[in-house]
Amino acid sequence: RSIKSLTTSPSSHILRRGYASEAAPDRKVAVLGAAGGIGQPLALLMKLNPLVSSLALYDIANTPGVAADVSHINTRSEVSGYSGEAELGKALEGADVVIIPAGVPRKPGMTRDDLFNINAGIVKGLCQAIAKYCPQALVNMISNPVNSTVPIAAEVFKKAGTYDPKRLFGVTTLDVVRAKTFYAGKAKVPVAEVNVPVVGGHAGITILPLFSQATPKANLSDAEITALTKRTQDGGTEVVEAKAGKGSATLSMAYAGAIFADACLKGLNGAPDVVECSYVQSTITELPFFASKVRLGKNGVEEVLGLGPLSDYEKEGLEKLKPQLQSSIEKGIKFANQ
Ligand code: NAD
Ligand code: LMR
């Protein structure tokens, strides 16, 4: 890869501080579903990221307008728009990171699993193209139900002979973003200083925030921890209901997706100590896929980190989530192999 000097804007200095030399390698990021509710603000945020040199925006329709719009922003990356399946290969070729927010969102009364019938097929098709055109890319799966779409992706890649568990990620960053926000509000601590791991999966009770490990420490009651846990688990539903039929979280998801993609890019570029929670192939429980803290590096997952000490409440939550997560994983694997 060629090395290109970054522009010396103050923001790029801040983002690079601490790990990079004065140059950042060329990195191509592709967003699949780029004209959607998440895709558009995510395209904007990735255009603002100085680690990106090429930004490919793909959707089945409406991408030229989004790409033209975003391309006028005076930051490092070159933007290109791709519309329709015939252009998918060009969008993917040479991609280092592929972010997938393609698929239908929930309406009130639906579970994420209710999206399976439509989104499973969308994800399968996109992953077949990734296996063909950019098998080395890190894949950031946003499309729901994440608990199943990640196993689907793994099976598609296995069939194609390109599967590398280090390169496949379910994006659960929004759960962490929510847990941090809700904890800071309740604990009355500065939100920017808050850290809370969230493990398990990305649906209802499979989302398990570990508030016993939250920092800065606060003396919250059991009832407060229970309420915070429930609010984090139901955060997506809170937004779906507030949007009243107009979709699910898009802006907070774009923010979370941009944070996670940035972490992937930093890892690829050799930054030390890049740790984010993500739903990945895992051996830290008996489940084949599980979200936990993951150290990111030049090959994607460098290390899947353990759960650390859990409170009794969290231990109980962990046991309760396992059957549901296991069945979502099996559903995805079965779909991909039928
Ligand atoms: P949206 O309907 O606004 O946008 C989806 C986009 O995907 C549309 O532009 C559509 O044209 C596109 N699309 C459909 N089929 C495609 C294909 N085959 N190839 C490329 N693009 C295709 O929906 P949204 O609000 O952006 O949500 C997208 C997905 O993200 C949903 O499944 C939603 O449940 C999920 N989501 C996940 C999280 C998370 O935390 N992981 C958070 C929020 C939403
Ligand atoms: C979320 O957590 O906001 C997403 O998974 C979207 C949803 O359907 O809740």
Automatic annotation (TrEMBL):
<dbReference type="InterPro" id="IPR001252">
    <property type="entry name" value="Malate_DH_AS"/>
</dbReference>
<feature type="binding site">
    <location>
        <position position="253"/>
    </location>
    <ligand>
        <name>NAD(+)</name>
    </ligand>
</feature>
<dbReference type="Pfam" id="PF02866">
    <property type="entry name" value="Ldh_1_C"/>
</dbReference>
<dbReference type="InterPro" id="IPR010097">
    <property type="entry name" value="Malate_DH_type1"/>
</dbReference>
<keyword id="KW-0560">Oxidoreductase</keyword>
<keyword id="KW-0809">Transit peptide</keyword>
<feature type="binding site">
    <location>
        <begin position="33"/>
        <end position="39"/>
    </location>
    <ligand>
        <name>NAD(+)</name>
    </ligand>
</feature>
<protein>
    <recommendedName>
        <fullName>Malate dehydrogenase</fullName>
        <ecNumber>1.1.1.37</ecNumber>
    </recommendedName>
</protein>
<feature type="binding site">
    <location>
        <position position="59"/>
    </location>
    <ligand>
        <name>NAD(+)</name>
    </ligand>
</feature>
<dbReference type="InterPro" id="IPR001557">
    <property type="entry name" value="L-lactate/malate_DH"/>
</dbReference>
<feature type="domain" description="Lactate/malate dehydrogenase N-terminal">
    <location>
        <begin position="28"/>
        <end position="170"/>
    </location>
</feature>
<feature type="binding site">
    <location>
        <position position="106"/>
    </location>
    <ligand>
        <name>substrate</name>
    </ligand>
</feature>
<dbReference type="GO" id="GO:0030060">
    <property type="term" value="F:L-malate dehydrogenase (NAD+) activity"/>
</dbReference>
<keyword id="KW-0816">Tricarboxylic acid cycle</keyword>
<feature type="binding site">
    <location>
        <position position="119"/>
    </location>
    <ligand>
        <name>NAD(+)</name>
    </ligand>
</feature>
<feature type="binding site">
    <location>
        <position position="112"/>
    </location>
    <ligand>
        <name>substrate</name>
    </ligand>
</feature>
<feature type="binding site">
    <location>
        <position position="178"/>
    </location>
    <ligand>
        <name>substrate</name>
    </ligand>
</feature>
<dbReference type="InterPro" id="IPR015955">
    <property type="entry name" value="Lactate_DH/Glyco_Ohase_4_C"/>
</dbReference>
<dbReference type="Pfam" id="PF00056">
    <property type="entry name" value="Ldh_1_N"/>
</dbReference>
<keyword id="KW-0520">NAD</keyword>
<feature type="binding site">
    <location>
        <begin position="142"/>
        <end position="144"/>
    </location>
    <ligand>
        <name>NAD(+)</name>
    </ligand>
</feature>
<feature type="binding site">
    <location>
        <position position="144"/>
    </location>
    <ligand>
        <name>substrate</name>
    </ligand>
</feature>
<dbReference type="InterPro" id="IPR036291">
    <property type="entry name" value="NAD(P)-bd_dom_sf"/>
</dbReference>
<dbReference type="InterPro" id="IPR022383">
    <property type="entry name" value="Lactate/malate_DH_C"/>
</dbReference>
<comment type="subunit">
    <text>Homodimer.</text>
</comment>
<dbReference type="InterPro" id="IPR001236">
    <property type="entry name" value="Lactate/malate_DH_N"/>
</dbReference>
<feature type="domain" description="Lactate/malate dehydrogenase C-terminal">
    <location>
        <begin position="172"/>
        <end position="335"/>
    </location>
</feature>
<dbReference type="GO" id="GO:0006099">
    <property type="term" value="P:tricarboxylic acid cycle"/>
</dbReference>
<dbReference type="GO" id="GO:0006108">
    <property type="term" value="P:malate metabolic process"/>
</dbReference>
<comment type="similarity">
    <text>Belongs to the LDH/MDH superfamily. MDH type 1 family.</text>
</comment>
<keyword id="KW-0496">Mitochondrion</keyword>
<dbReference type="GO" id="GO:0005759">
    <property type="term" value="C:mitochondrial matrix"/>
</dbReference>
<feature type="active site" description="Proton acceptor">
    <location>
        <position position="202"/>
    </location>
</feature>
